[in-house]
Amino acid sequence: MAANNNSGPAASDRVHIFDVDHTVVRKTSTEYFVQMALKEKVIRFSQINHLLIDWVKYKLAFPDINFIEHTVKKMAGMQKNDLERVSAACFIKRIKPNIYSSAKSLIDEALKNGEKVIFATSSFDFIIKPLEQFFGIEGSLACQFEYSQGKTTGNLVGYSSFGPKKKTAAQAWMGKNAVNPQNVSFYSDSYTDLPLLEYCGNPIAVNPDGILERKAKKRGWKILYFKDVLG
Questions:
Q1: Within the chain, which residues score under 50 in pLDDT?
Q2: Residue 31: which residues within 8 A CB-CB, separation 6 or more?
Q3: Which terminal residue of the chain has fewer beta carbons within 10 Å of its beta carbon, N or C?
Q4: Beta-carbon contacts of residue 210 (< 8 Å; ≥ 6 apart)
């Protein structure tokens, strides 16, 4: 039951959605995974060599919003078991030590108060699943490989959750779970998440890039700077 207008929404109605990369985790979760997957020979460099161009486009504020779909097409034939095995090891060795202490405190406090927490990320679900398990949450929004007979097909299930498509995914999730966007706090570092930040009632910029920092200051949004990690 929602609280009255004077006290704001009840804890059970409040939702916290966290971007992951540079917001909960110091670097990019996919970068951590790819480094280990290349070493384990689960992924070939030829499958991801164009990502440097996509990174440059992102930095120049001209991102290709379909770059994940394009990348996935080159990744047909990978074993689901291999992806899950490497992601589990990657979480222990690389992701967990690089979780921001302040992000963990925010998430722990929200959960303690009975508030809903999920992640919304353009990373892949098998990379994010160990992070969910670490915090004891479920139902996050992430990219999903399509599989056939235990192997990737080169397609996604649905669409990626990058840029405006993350907002679309979050809107669908809110509708399905009867969540009022005005009761949602969304935390992100990236200008590409502006559509979802603008949609949520409590947009929060975390370690924002230059574009997002300027937008956040202009609009009076809360800005947080995280530094220390769990180690």
A1: 1-6
A2: none
A3: N
A4: none
Q: What is the pTM of this model?
A: 0.93
Q: Residue 31's closest CA among 12, 6, 58?
A: 58
Identify the pLDDT of residue 49: 85
How long a stretch of residues is the chain? 231
Taking the CA atoms of residue 196, residue 97, residue 140 and residue 79 in that order, the dihedral angle to the nearest 10 degrees is 120
Quick one: pLDDT at residue 77?
A: 95
Angle at CA of residue 177, ends 176 and 183, nearest 5°: 125
The confidence score (pLDDT) of residue 151 equals 97
Query: Rounded to the nearest 5°, which phi and psi values hold at 77?
Result: 95, 0
Let me know if 170 is exposed, middle or buried by CB neighbors in 10 A (0-12, 13-18, 19+). buried
- Helical ranges in the chain per DSSP H: 29-39, 51-59, 67-73, 80-90, 101-112, 125-135, 164-176, 194-199, 210-219
Q: Taking a C-beta distance cutoff of 8 angstroms, is the pair 207, 228 a contact?
A: no
Report the C-alpha gap between 129 and 146 in whole angstroms: 16
Provide φ and ψ at 103, rounded to 5°: -65, -40
Cα 107 to Cα 16: distance, rounded to the nearest angstrom: 8
Q: What is the pLDDT of residue 105?
A: 98
Domain 11-224 matching CATH 3.40.50.1000: the answer reads yes
Give residue 7's pLDDT: 59
Do 202 and 186 form a contact (C-beta atoms < 8 A)? yes
- Count the neighbouring beta carbons within 10 Å of the beta carbon of residue 20: 26
Nearest to 18 by CA among 205, 209, 182, 160: 205
